[in-house]
TrEMBL record:
Name the UniProt record assigns to this protein: Asl1-like glycosyl hydrolase catalytic domain-containing protein
Stretches for region Disordered: 390-429
Annotated Polar residues bias: 409-425
Organism: Chaetoceros tenuissimus
Gene3D superfamilies the record matches: Glycosidases
């Protein structure tokens, strides 16, 4: 990329206005930024080292209908592009490709772009959920758009070991143009305490500390011969109770993976996503103090994330409009942040670090759990819950957000005044609804009995709970050949369904 002239956002008063200082800073040509939903204008300005951003959509996150959360979103995007940042549009899934001719705003986005991202984890039921044949059938549309706007095509963004799906895709898409491969790499940092498959490296003295990550990069490059985009990487599993990642592990895996990506010329671009930790049933930003008090007490955000050694790295810090609205009224709020998708969590990074985080009136969450049909044609609401950090739900719930518009989102928001410190109810999972290998896929799911609740991190019943002696409805049987892609759940053959860890 180019030497950038970057506008630095400075918070000077309770009005949260910006003062511009022009500085010359080189942007890292590999490093990206990711977020979903409406953004504060300061999001791009505060990430001075990133050279690109994406939103899991073909919309940039600032313009058009989102202007109410960034008063001059068009100008924010124009300034970012002038300073060396590229917005990379994405066609997330099968229904994400806009019809042509494009609307003027969409046309302008693609004129300004250089690259196009495609389907997000299509091998997973909880993501784009496509067969290789479905993806191949849509590829002519993608190529036509890329040709019209002179874009490089980034292939489907796969979990790191989903070779089977990708091989099948290439087999049915024999003449398809793909300029880059795209993968997601989640690992435990060295030294590892979890299972081998989660570990980035090995204690074998003859191998490197990041051996398994390097092995994955070797496989993807050697098998497919294309430069690699890593559009998501981080620490996994997120659940601390299951050998997951606390703040120290997140920082360690960030350093270990980034070091490899920077040194490997085959890695074209990378983007950190994201920081989670489980504690007391809540998913919080793990680079915060990983403590329940972060939502209910006086613990402040760990400023190491923005103002310490990671200050200019441009990671996937997610700003959310209700957090912004509540934080702008406080002179001590340095940057309003959202670090969690599942809970739409808002945090305020303060300079003083001594103010109650939940003293602001707008921090209300409306959570609606839904299940998306396998063909993505129907969204069924299976439960509603309000979490206003203590408070009552609004009279009219906010509309649900279709899951396919952003990565794994299960929550929407609605503003409400926080009036009392009551705690949101706890959901107890019914019988026979345990999750399979922490993958958010529940036992008996194909029988219509159980569905994952992202808010409560449990599998819940979609029908009345069965008696202790009842038998779950059987999954449809397709006979032999019912294998799945990777460890991802979609079954290869018609008549097959996922049940209790296998395709049947």
């Amino acid at each position: 990329m180019v030497i950038a002239l970057t506008t630095i956002a400075v918070i000077l008063s309770s009005n949260f206005y910006l003062s511009s200082a022009v500085v010359s800073t080189p942007r890292n040509p590999k490093k990206g930024l990711s977020f979903s939903g409406a953004q504060s204008c300061a999001t791009l300005e505060s990430h001075t080292d990133s050279s690109w951003w994406y939103t899991w959509e073909y919309r940039n996150g600032f313009s058009g209908s989102l202007k109410s959360f960034c008063a001059d979103g068009d100008n924010a995007v124009t300034n970012a592009r002038a300073s060396g940042m590229e917005f990379v549009p994405m066609f997330w899934g099968a229904t994400s490709i806009p019809s042509q001719p494009f609307a003027q705003a969409t046309h302008e986005e693609f004129v300004a772009a250089s690259n196009l991202l495609t389907f997000n984890e299509p091998e997973r039921m909880d993501q784009a959920n496509m067969t290789p044949a479905q993806a191949a059938a849509l590829w002519p549309q993608i190529e036509a758009i890329a040709f019209t706007y002179d874009l490089k095509i980034v292939g489907p963004c796969m979990t790191k070991d989903a070779y089977s799906w990708y091989n099948d895709f290439l087999a049915v898409c024999t003449n398809c143009r793909v300029d880059y491969t795209c993968i997601h790499t989640y690992y435990q940092p060295m030294p590892c305490t979890g299972p081998d498959w989660e570990c980035i490296g090995t204690t074998d003295p003859s191998k490197s500390e990041t051996f398994w990550l390097e092995n994955v990069l070797n496989n993807w490059y050697n098998n497919y011969g294309k430069p690699i985009w890593v559009t998501e990487y981080g620490c996994y599993p997120w659940d601390i109770a299951k050998e997951g990642c606390d703040a120290a592990k997140h920082e360690a895996i960030m350093e270990q993976q980034t070091r490899v990506f920077e040194a490997d010329d085959r890695v074209e671009r990378y983007n950190w996503y994201s920081t989670y930790a489980f504690d007391d049933g809540f998913r919080d930003g793990a680079l915060n103090v990983p403590n329940y008090d972060v939502k209910h007490g006086t613990t402040c955000l760990n400023n190491l994330w923005l103002e310490g050694i990671f200050e200019s790295r441009g990671w996937g810090i997610h700003q959310y409009h209700e957090c912004v609205a509540s934080a702008e009224a406080n002179t001590n709020c340095h940057k309003p942040l959202r670090l969690s998708f599942d809970d739409e969590s808002c945090y305020c990074s303060t300079d003083a670090c001594d103010l109650p985080i939940v003293s602001y009136p707008q921090m209300h969450l409306y959570v609606e759990s839904s299940t998306l049909s396998r063909d993505s044609s129907a969204l069924t609401v299976i439960g509603q819950q309000y979490d206003s950090f203590g408070g009552n739900p609004p009279a009219t719930p906010a509309p649900s957000k279709l899951a396919s518009s952003s990565p794994s989102i299960r929550a929407t928001t609605s503003p409400s005044q926080v009036t009392s410190p009551t705690k949101a109810p706890t959901v107890t999972p019914p019988l026979n609804c345990g999750a399979i290998d922490n993958s958010k896929v529940c036992n008996n799911e194909t029988g219509g009995l159980c569905t994952w609740s992202g808010k409560n991190k449990v599998c819940t019943s979609t029908n009345p709970a069965p008696s202790p002696h009842s038998t779950p409805a059987p999954a449809p049987s397709g006979g032999g050949g019912c294998s799945s892609y990777s460890d991802a759940k979609p079954c290869k053959n018609a008549g097959c369904a996922w049940s209790k860890g296998i395709c049947v």
